[in-house]
Design brief:
Elements: H1 3-7, H2 17-32, H3 36-52, E1 66-68, E2 73-81, E3 92-99, E4 106-108, E5 113-121, H4 132-136, E6 139-146, E7 151-158, E8 165-167, E9 174-175, E10 180-184, E11 188-195, E12 199-200, E13 207-208, E14 214-217
Antiparallel strand pairs: 1-14, 2-3, 2-13, 3-11, 4-10, 5-6, 5-9, 6-7, 7-11, 8-10, 12-14
Helix pairs in contact: 2-3
Length: 219
């Protein structure tokens, strides 16, 4: 079961409700005061915020051992990392995905397993499409152990405008592939670290959809 759907039964992520409510209130206030030059921009902004926080249902028809994209967006880079100096702690494949303000920003679990660790770290707010955002920006790291004892890591990274990372899972949770697990506001980045022996099918520059696009396959 997608327990995050119990958390939010609306087609919008509830983190957006305060922003949508504020925009609607300003639109009504300016309209009441007869300030058309302000009510129209406020109304358009409210519509954009509603669009940004949309949370559509997705059907997961992935094959066994498939690793799904945790985010909508564009694959910025795929790197093979030698040694242990990375988030996985072993030779790994790192896949970086950039989410623009026009993408759905609800994040989804890449593969079924148990959450071993959730670790938040404050940081800076460089543009999320820059490589230095991976090192310096605010982040939330999640370590997951799959059913066949493989470890994967996925990291939510805030961007230039984003100032809040939401995470809806905790240590010890059993999660399913495609399950909603969090959200980042207004343009951000997701990174996935897979074991080096995984077969990656994603390509640099590819457009991906959270919970649907297959990034690769576990051994």
């Amino acid at each position: 079961m997608d327990t995050s759907r119990i958390y939010n039964k609306w087609p919008l992520a509830r983190e957006g409700f305060p922003f949508i409510g504020m925009g609607c209130a300003l639109t009504l206030l300016f309209s009441y005061l007869g300030c058309l030059s302000l009510s129209v921009p406020a109304g358009l902004l409210s519509l954009f915020i509603t669009f940004f926080f949309r949370d559509p249902d997705r059907k997961n028809g992935a094959q066994h051992k498939a690793v799904l994209s945790p985010a909508d967006g564009k694959v910025l880079r795929i790197q093979r990392l030698e040694g242990t100096e990375n988030a996985l702690g072993e030779p790994a494949i790192k896949i970086s995905i950039f989410m623009s303000v026009f993408n759905v920003h609800v994040n989804r679990i890449p593969v079924r397993g148990v959450i071993e660790m959730v670790s938040y770290r404050p940081g800076r707010f460089f543009p999320a499409n820059l490589d230095k955002a991976s090192e310096y920006n605010e982040r939330n790291k999640i370590i997951l152990r799959t059913d066949n004892s493989q470890k994967i890591v996925f990291i939510q990274i805030a961007g230039l405008i984003a100032r809040r990372i939401a995470c809806w899972v905790g240590e010890g949770d059993l999660v399913e592939a495609g399950q909603r697990f969090g959200l980042i506001r207004f343009g951000s980045r997701l990174e996935v670290y897979l074991p080096a022996i995984c077969h990656v099918t994603a390509t640099q520059g590819q457009k991906v959809r959270a919970g649907e696009t297959v990034l690769g396959y576990l051994p």
